[in-house]
Design a protein that fits this description.
Layout: E1 24-25, E2 29-33, E3 39-46, H1 61-71, E4 89-94, E5 99-106, H2 112-125, H3 134-153, H4 156-168, H5 182-186, H6 190-200, E6 206-212, H7 216-227, H8 239-242, E7 250-258, E8 265-273, H9 279-294, H10 301-308, E9 312-322, E10 327-336, H11 342-359, H12 363-382, H13 384-396, H14 401-405, H15 407-413, H16 416-427, E11 431-439
Parallel strand pairs: 2-6, 7-11
Antiparallel strand pairs: 1-2, 3-5, 3-6, 4-5, 8-10, 8-11, 9-10
């Protein structure tokens, strides 16, 4: 395995606890040096998304701001937007927790230092502020509206998922659409976007990830030049994020007939209580459990529900997510097989979870999955492009970098009891919704 020299950025050094491709790190600047990369990618992750909008309501202002920052001019870039390089690509994404901006351009040795300096400067200047014309602001509001119509309003499955999310978490930002809805989008104002920016955009709430043939000294100089002089901000408390989710165990059915649907499908959403004592260990155990739920192991969901019982031809999705402290969110979806009612298929999932919770996941299977996950990480360490993507996605979920470094060790520490404990939790009582989406009569 190629080894890279770990260098400090901004004078801060943290030694990694694993034998993978070293990542240079400051408090908020990461480098994955890759001598063989054909392009350089710079990603800026802002630690705020739609769940940080006022009053816990995802209107989509954070997403609107993402669009405005790509276009918004400032004194040093009056005539150009984020797409500096004709042969480069740029984009952004907003989630409940973060807003991500990235730009990628081909490696050009003769201009590489100047290109990276130009781009790093542009990104860091977005933390100070932005200017946008009324024409651009109106156009981007319409672009967001078109995106919503394409991704949500025009897709039966997305409309249905939005409905179920709102019902399973009616008073929680995680149950709301990141981009809001058509009425909310139409009411966007630049003033709201600017207020969100003023609250959350700061160097102490931003992470930068650079991947490519870049040396640590160059990136350190850029960080000192453009990032270090910026002021920090006192960020608001996120009480809602750390609060235990409270809910009464309930069971509800939601049925929707839609002319855009060709076949009946079910979606099961279930929130259960789970008191974790170690976040990283619980996350590692959940990754093992999800690998089992989504895989084709003997005695697993596919083997039982599809192959043995024949309730469906394919499970479209079955996984467990964490939704804040003390709560797990189970999602399961499939189309009933011929002659199978939605209720029978839903009962098949319930029966499978109950039986599996009683017997647990076989110890040998747990060990086999752990070996696979650790091997997958080792493979990504050899493919630095994949590794950079993995690190970026991890940080974009507001996960701790230390936990990323210790990923393989955390996976190795998972026991059968850890996995079975999660399985018993999601099989237990909670707030459950059976959604049935069917063709219009």
């Amino acid at each position: 395995m190629i080894r890279f020299v770990l260098a400090a950025l901004l004078g801060f050094f943290v030694a990694p606890a694993f034998a993978g491709p070293e990542v240079s790190i400051s408090d908020n600047v990461f480098l994955i040096p890759d001598a063989n990369a054909k392009s350089i990618t710079l990603t800026m992750i802002i630690g705020a998304g739609c769940s940080d909008e006022p009053h816990g309501e995802c209107k989509g202002i954070s997403h609107y701001l993402e669009h405005l920052l790509f276009l918004g001019r400032n004194p040093d870039h009056k005539a150009v937007s984020i797409a500096f390089f004709r042969d480069g690509t740029a984009n952004g994404a907003t989630s409940h927790l973060t807003t991500v901006y990235w730009d990628q351009f081909p490696v050009r040795p003769e201009t590489q230092a100047a290109d990276l300096d130009k781009l790093f400067r542009y990104f860091t200047e977005r933390l100070n502020g932005f200017e946008v014309s009324d024409v651009d602001a109106a156009r981007e509001r319409n672009v967001v509206l078109q995106e919503y119509r394409w991704r949500v309003a025009s897709r039966a499955s997305a409309r249905f998922q939005t409905l179920l999310n709102a019902k399973i978490l009616p008073d929680d930002p995680f149950g709301q659409q990141v981009a809001g809805d058509e009425q909310k989008i139409a009411a966007y104002t630049v003033a709201e976007a600017r207020a969100f920016h003023d609250t959350w955009y700061a160097k102490n709430n931003a992470i930068f990830v650079v991947h490519g043939p870049v040396d640590a000294a160059t990136l350190k100089a850029l960080a000192q030049k453009h990032l270090a002089p910026l002021p920090e901000k006192k960020l608001p408390e996120r009480a809602w994020l750390d609060a235990l989710r409270t809910f009464e165990p309930t069971t509800e059915s939601v049925r929707v007939s839609d002319p855009d649907v060709q076949r009946t499908a079910i979606e099961i959403e279930k929130i259960v209580r789970f008191e974790e004592t170690d976040r990283a260990r619980a996350d590692a155990a959940r990754r093992v459990l999800n690998t089992w739920l989504e895989g084709r192991f003997d005695g697993g969901p596919h083997d039982t529900i599809v192959e043995s019982v024949g309730l469906t031809n394919e499970i479209d999705g079955l996984f467990v997510a964490r939704t804040g402290p003390g709560a797990l969110w189970l999602t399961a979806g499939a189309e009933p097989g011929d002659g199978v009612t939605p209720e029978r298929l839903a009962k098949g999932f319930d029966d499978f979870l109950a039986a599996s919770a009683a017997s647990g996941v076989p110890a040998a299977t747990v060990e086999r999955i752990k070996e696979r996950l650790i091997e997958d990480r080792a493979l990504s360490e050899r493919d630095l492009d994949a590794y950079a993507s993995e690190l970026t996605q991890w940080l974009a979920q507001r996960k701790n970098y230390h936990d990323f470094v210790n990923y393989s060790a955390d996976i190795a520490s998972v026991t059968k009891d850890d996995v079975d404990g999660l399985l018993r939790a999601v099989a237990g009582r909670g707030r459950e919704i059976l959604g049935v989406l069917s063709p219009a009569s």
